[in-house]
Amino acid sequence: MSRAPVKLATLAYVRRGDRTLMIRRDKRPDDAHFGKWNGLGGKFEPGESPEACLRREVLEESGLEVVRADLKGFLTWPAFDGTHDWYAFCFVVTETRGELHPDPAEGSLHWVPTADVPALELWEGDRVFLPWLDRPGTFSATFRYQDGRLVDHEATFYPPSV
Predict the structure, then answer these.
(1) Angle 104-7-59 (CA atoms, 0-180°, nearest 5)?
(2) Does the pTM of the predicted model rise above 0.90?
(3) How many domains does the chain have?
(4) pLDDT 10s per residue in the chain (162 long)?
(5) What CATH number is associated with residue 73?
(6) Residue 162 within any structural domain of the chain
(7) What distance in Å separates the CA atoms of residue 76 and residue 80, rounded to the nearest whole number?
């Protein structure tokens, strides 16, 4: 059995009050996410833990230092880019330090009312898992896309630890 190459990543939803910091991927037309809105994050560097990747990516993309974050879930996208299976640790960041300094190469940053995030131009699967960020416990979900369209998904929910 051949195996798809794997990409490990983090995905962070930085929140302040009733707003979520979102990135609009509008800088590089060759970006697979061009035109989409997303949380912050990116690929692991060699030897990095999920938490170290989260802190580095949020800092690089926004200038904000992560003070507190909660792991909410684990996302899987088989052959998302046609070649790689992507796995992402999904966090909600509830406390940061510093001033917003966007990375102009990534996209434009916007504080969006959290209730309005699902109405943005998102990947279809994001609308499915975004409500799970506010549930107690964690989730593990797989989202299958074909030609840029969501074809199915499945999820397992784990209750909070006692």
Answers:
(1) 35
(2) yes
(3) 1
(4) 557 789 999 999 999 999 999 999 887 777 777 789 999 999 999 999 999 999 999 999 999 999 999 999 999 999 988 888 999 999 999 999 999 998 778 789 999 999 999 999 999 999 999 999 999 999 999 999 998 899 999 999 999 765
(5) 3.90.79.10
(6) no
(7) 9
Report the largest interatomic distance among the alpha carbons of the chain, rounded to a whole angstrom. Answer: 49
Coil, strand, or helix at residue 127?
A: helix
Are the beta carbons of 136 and 121 closer than 8 angstroms? Answer: no
Residue 1 resides in a domain: no
Q: Does 108 map to a domain? A: yes
- Cα 120 to Cα 160: distance, rounded to the nearest angstrom: 30
Distance CA 108, CA 6 (A): 28
User: What are the residues whose beta carbons fall under 8 Å from the beta carbon of 17, sequence distance 6 or more?
Assistant: none
Which domain, by its residues, includes 60? 6-156
CA distance 36 to 49: 27
Which alpha helices (H) appear in 12-88, and where do they start and end? 50-62
Contacts of 112 (CB under 8 A, 6+ apart): 19, 20, 21, 22, 37, 120
DSSP reduced 3-state for 133: helix
* 161 within domain boundaries: no
